[in-house]
Write a structure and sequence with these properties.
alpha+beta
Length: 374
Amino acid sequence: MGFERVRAAAVAVVISGLTVGLLSATPVAQAGPDATDVVPVTGAVFNDPTGSVEEQYAIRDHVMGLVNSTESGETISMSLYNITDDERVFADALIAAADRGVNVRVVLEAENAGSGSAEAIVEHLGTDQTAGSWAVVCSNGCHGTNINHNKFYLFSHVGGRSNVVVQSSANLTISNSRSYWNNAVTFVDNAELHGAYERYFDDLARDRKDDAYYTTFHAGEVKGYHFPRSGAGDTVANTLENVDCGTADDPTRIRVGMWYFGRTAVAQELARLGQSGCRVEIVYTDMLPEPQSVLDAASNVIMKQLPEGGDHIIHSKYYLIDGPYADVDRKVVFTGSPNFSGRALRVNDETMLRIYSDEIHDQYVANFEAMFAD
């Protein structure tokens, strides 16, 4: 769904704007990353590390198409954990946008600010936040005390649409395209969502430590969560408490795609739901022994590992619910930058979204099934 002008992926079928297929639900721009006439629409984009170069770089090219289409006087704001893109193409797109009069504002993490792409962005945009374009490098996180792990992009106006937000799991690196499964979701014409992200971006750019920053917001059918969260409580475990497992004939389906799984509280909730009759499926790359043992002992929980060192790993961070949630039978997507790790919850700068959308949920299900079959 990332662009209105799309081309069907290898074995996907596009019917009335909906993408159906198990291998890929990832449309890509016909004109490629240099397009200057793309029109963003609400929906999900996925890369396919098993596919063509175009399919591997679908997320990067989706965002770069938006950058290249943004006109002078508009504003692009983004927060990136890591950018080492090959041939510096994304950095050059940002620099070109600034040179044609776009206000380009970037927050980076110092841990990865030594790459050629990051250095070029900082050098060209400068660090003067009173200027139209600028870059900030947070050291060991902006609010958090570990890293700024965000990956989001905001556009004031592009392709005839306003208030465009892209939330992704992907870093802009070669491996994140060629070897890792990743996702991104785009929202257009959502002023509440764009405004909430802009306020968060401005807070990040101040680079002031605050391990109790945790905030939430609502924007229509979307709820956002900004971390770090200090003290007790686990946001993901809390959301899973809202799930009802339905009936034996129609059980709730829970699908988890996660790079790193380290929080026992989340595993305990998933195990409880499995034992209550939900059908739980998990694709992961790394998992700590304690949550592993909890899930191994649970009924109705199926897990598949895409291990480090394999041809492909999962770098996405999402979980999907199809069934009663908060007393309503619906389809729900949780996605963003945080892994199920203690650091993502307590000390990292992260963003997670809860999305009520049948169409976006079904796009993620197609991606999940492709990963499960990898």
